[in-house]
Write a structure and sequence with these properties.
With 240 residues, the protein is mainly β. It folds into two domains: 6-52 and 71-126 and 167-239, no CATH class; 129-161, no CATH class. The chain is built from one helix and 14 strands. It has one helix spanning 32-40; strands at residues 6-14, 17-27, 48-49, 76-81, 89-102, 105-124, 132-139, 145-153, 165-188, 191-204, 210-212, 215-218, 229-230, 237-239. The strands form two sheets. Strands 1, 2, 3, 4, 5, 6, 9, 10, 11, 12, 13 and 14 form a twelve-stranded mixed β-sheet that branches.
């Protein structure tokens, strides 16, 4: 069962000005794709493998593996969910100030804050602690070095018989803040025009490559703070 608690408030400040505010929680239901992926991802009902060309025993296309007993060591993938897996939810707060600036023109300023919590993520817990680092040079638009970036390199697995062991958990978060300004003008009885401008900023720590639709991967096992940054869909300014 999915609950969506929401409360709203409207207040008339003056004959020309009104204030509206709302607060709500919105829960994400389990999708069929996620349930199917978790059911088949245990490697008991269906075997999922990842084979690199340089692995011992790897086949060359178009040859295929027939019995699972011939799979190269270290190729099966496993996916499972933590015992306390929950539905992700967002907390949304909106506040709007609307004023009639003339008989046929209305100006609205709307502020929004949306906080996503317990978002689904998948961490590869088969990655052993890194023992190496790699340094990359950061260049500007003129190909001039401006700084360096150091990152860990994972070279070993905890279980050499498996390729990836994804643990699905509620480790992700998102932050969205926006201010929208809208101007509406009635030019005729059945015709109106409007213009709007939105400034927004979207941040999350779940923009990794999806393991299955709806579940992104985490680059560093269970270290979501290291993946925090601008969302893939972040768009600071938009007008229409």
């Amino acid at each position: 069962m999915n609950l969506t608690p929401r409360a709203s408030l409207a207040y008339l400040l003056s004959p020309r000005t009104a204030f509206r505010a709302s607060y709500g929680w919105y829960f994400t239901p389990l999708t069929g794709q996620i349930v199917d992926a978790l059911f088949l991802g245990n490697s008991l009902y269906q075997t999922n493998i990842l084979v690199n060309p340089n692995q011992t025993g790897a086949l060359v296309f178009p040859k295929v593996f027939t019995p699972t007993g011939t799979l190269p060591n270290g190729t099966p993938n496993i996916m499972y969910a933590v015992s306390k897996m929950r539905q992700p939810y967002t907390q949304q707060i909106t506040a709007a100030l609307e004023r009639r600036v003339s008989v046929d023109t209305v100006l609205t300023v709307n502020a929004m804050n949306i906080r996503g919590q317990k978002l689904w993520t998948a961490a590869d817990v088969n990655l052993a602690a890194p023992t190496k680092t790699e340094t990359y040079t950061v260049e500007n638009a003129n190909n001039q070095a401006t700084s360096t970036f150091v990152t860990n390199v994972y070279t070993a697995r905890n279980d050499g018989t498996k390729a990836q062991v994804f643990q699905v958990e509620n480790g992700g978060s998102s932050w969205y803040n926006a201010v929208a300004v809208q101007l509406r003008k009635q030019v005729a009885r059945s015709l109106s025009v409007q213009a709007s401008y939105t400034w927004s900023h979207s941040i999350d720590d779940v923009s990794g490559t999806p393991v299955v639709p709806g579940i992104p991967s985490n680059s560093t096992p269970s270290n979501y703070a290291g993946d925090r940054g601008n969302s893939e869909a972040d768009q600071r300014q938009r007008g229409q």
